[in-house]
Amino acid sequence: MSGNPNNVLRKPSWLARISAVWLVLTALLVSACAVKTAPPLPPTLKYPEFVYPTPMRAAAREAMAVDLGWRFLQNDDLSNAEREFSGALKSAPDSPAAKAGEGYVSLARHDYMRALDQFDLALRGAPTYAPALVGKGLTLLSVNRDSDARAAFEAAMKADPSLTSLSARVDVLKFREIQNLIAAARNAMNAGRLDEARTGYQRAIAATPDSAVLYRELGMVERRSGNVAAALEQFNRAVMLDPADAISLGQVGELLEGRDDFAGAETAFRRAHDVDPSAGYDRKADAVAARTREARLPAEYRALASAPQITRGDLAALIGIRLEDLLQQAPRTAEVITDTAGHWAASWIAEVAAAAVMPPFDNHTFQPRAPVRRVDLAEAVNALLRIASRTRPALQTRMASRPTIPDVNTSHLNYPAVAAAVSAGILPLIEGGRFDTERPVSGTDAIAAIDRLRALAQ
User: Fold this and answer.
1) What angle (nearest 5°) sits at the alpha carbon of residue 344, between those of residues 288 and 295?
2) Which residue in 93, 184, 327, 399 has a CA-CA distance of 20 to 30 Å to 29?
């Protein structure tokens, strides 16, 4: 070889310098990569609700890339996190962990549609992969699909029972979902959309089958729909769950009363009163009890309401039954009556005769089939008012009034009785301010008068 030998010496020196620079650059790059590819987890995770996507296989390369991606993600370095999860997919294209990781990156970026796609891809190959189920639930929650989110969380807890922190979130979602269902059902009911309301309450009950309130409100829907049997079923279920549900008990009472099951209605009202003494259920129970007694009375009595004209026997029964307590306050006289044997109202005739409310005629006959006129009713009412006024001074004052009645002047034989009945508000005047003494009394008129007298005497 010819030439300057120093040239030969320089060439290895140049190569040595290049090599040294390369080594330094390589060391720097390696050092930089080492720092970049191994970030520590921060003391406070950026996304603590995300679940670590543990690889399902024992592939070291996949596991390392997923772990690096997770570290970048929790440091909010989303670009490098995505790079690592993508790298994991290159080495393991079917990796549920890597797909779930990409889903979490998209969720962190609020790219919810892409996140759902990624989580669904992960679940397609591993339907019970808990990290993907949790990610899917969080994404669905972000797009206000609460019901679907709850289903995803429940599936995640089933797949991985250690995810106990999800329980509280599921409970909140259940409550919110039920509240929304109930609100929608109530709005539908108020708007008269009863089929829609029924469906809403049924869905709410399916979610919380132990809620007495929901059964009660469904019962209200069924009642408004005219489904008495279905309404009773729902109200009874409400009472089974909550024996102190006075409203449902009251509804049962009203429905049973409408079915003429007076004994059952009274029982329901009494129970409702025991729970809520201030709601007036005791008065309803008393009214039903009275109807129970009336239901056991003769058919002739029950027919009085539709009678165009009542008889003396009818009036005696009406007074004896509806004013029994008042009659007990009157002094008794022994009366002989010869024409009531075998009459359906014989026992009540005896009562009103003994109390001098409707005494027999001088020939000892009562004439139970004789028609009742307004003047006859006025005489009976006057006798009853005298009994009631003994303990009610204000009533005595009213009875003392002497109203002007065009067709019954003060010299009329029956004026005192007519005046008392009119002044007490028991028998109102009719057309032209007249009383019309000879006018026949219908069953409706007689019942109204006796009921007014009963209210006055109480």
Assistant:
1) 15
2) 93
The Cα 321–Cα 328 span in angstroms is 12
Place of tokens 């099951």: 261
Residues in the chain: 458
CATH number belonging to the domain at 60-164, selected among 1.20.1050.10, 1.25.40.10, 1.20.1250.20, 3.90.180.10: 1.25.40.10
Domain 178-295 listed as CATH 1.25.40.10: yes
Q: pLDDT tens, position by position, for the chain (458 residues)?
A: 334 333 333 333 423 432 443 343 344 334 444 445 568 999 999 999 999 999 987 678 889 999 999 999 999 999 999 999 999 999 899 999 999 999 999 999 999 999 999 999 999 989 999 999 999 999 999 999 988 999 999 999 999 999 999 999 998 998 888 888 899 999 999 999 999 999 999 999 998 899 999 999 999 999 999 999 999 999 999 999 999 999 999 999 999 999 999 999 999 999 999 999 999 999 999 999 988 887 888 999 989 999 999 999 999 999 999 999 999 999 999 889 999 999 999 999 999 999 999 999 999 999 999 999 999 999 999 999 999 998 888 888 888 889 999 999 999 999 999 999 999 999 999 988 999 999 999 999 999 999 999 998 87
Q: For the chain, what is the largest distance between any 2 Cα atoms, rounded to a whole number of angstroms?
A: 175
End-to-end CA distance of the chain: 144
b (16+ CB within 10 A) / e for 56-89 = eeebeebbbbbbbbbbbbbbebbebbbbbbebbb
Query: 373: helix, coil or strand?
Result: strand
Short-list 354, 371, 348, 369, CA closest to 297: 348
Cβ–Cβ < 8 Å for 184, 198: no
State the Cα–Cα distance between residues 133 and 154, nearest whole angstrom. 9
Q: pTM for this structure?
A: 0.55
Q: Where are the domains of the chain?
A: 1-32, 60-164, 178-295, 301-457
Residue 309, SS3?
Answer: coil
Q: What single-letter DSSP state applies at residue 296? A: T
Q: Distance of alpha carbon 320 from its chain centroid, rounded?
A: 44
